[in-house]
Amino acid sequence: MLKVKNVSKSYGDFKAVDNLSFEVKEGEIFGLLGANGAGKTTTFRMIMNLLTPDKGTITLDNKKIDYDVTDKIGFLTEERSLLLKLTVKELMIYYGTLKSMKKEQIEKNLKIWLKKFKIEDYENKKIKELSKGNKQKVQFISSIIHEPKLLILDEPFSGLDPINVDMFINAINDLKEKGTIIIFSSHQMNNVELFCEKLLILNKGKTILQGSLKDIKNNYDERRILIKADVTKAELLKLNGVKSVIIKGDEIEVNIENKKYAKDIFDYVSKKNNVLKFEVVELSLHEIFTKEVGDVNE
Predict the structure, then answer these.
(1) What is the pTM (predicted TM-score) of this model?
(2) Within 10 A of 260 (CB to CB), how many other CB atoms are there?
(3) In whole numbers, what is the pLDDT of the chain averaged over residues?
């Protein structure tokens, strides 16, 4: 288990992280979210033991993270960085050796992951010869070649096409099933909702929301109702609790201030002709994030 307890870090008079605490268990994917400058990168660097907290403790399996423990951590950084003149195999041997692996095990693990990502033929190609998507696959493999206990993924899907995103999703779920502790950070909230059972939102170094995704959503009474029926925008705007009505093609989106109004709206719409859809939807994580922090930086 990763435990971050009452951790703070300042740069001069600027407090980048302020009394941060969270835990992530084996086989769990934890979302660490925040706008640019929220304190995520500083947190990652403290977990990696690249920075020392001013206060608080960070442990992995109840051990303070030092150079021995960092061999059990994988980190896919948002800034992609590969040694372009090396071949894929040479690069993995370099990274794996840094993680105290034997060459035979590096080569064995590499073949497994190249096959999963359908790039077996690229083992002896130079990094500079690869496409952007394949470079990203290699970067991902470099972060997990040593079978880490803890994996930090910072914007792992940035710039990937849908097919490669699916490959990454399958790979991450495989690691989860094997018990890897995973911290997932992204500005793309739909990806966070897809993966993370628990999450924490930072704003200017402070925790502003924390808990299970389900509980966080349940704490917001606002709802959207998606309707397909013979009913007009003007009619819906007159109903109690309706904040706004948006026409989206053949569908109507009704935003209500509290879920308690949903039944009355359903009773009204159900009496209309051609009722094909009436769906009450919770706020998305994107909407919650925007409410608490501001607009998401894509």
Answers:
(1) 0.85
(2) 12
(3) 91
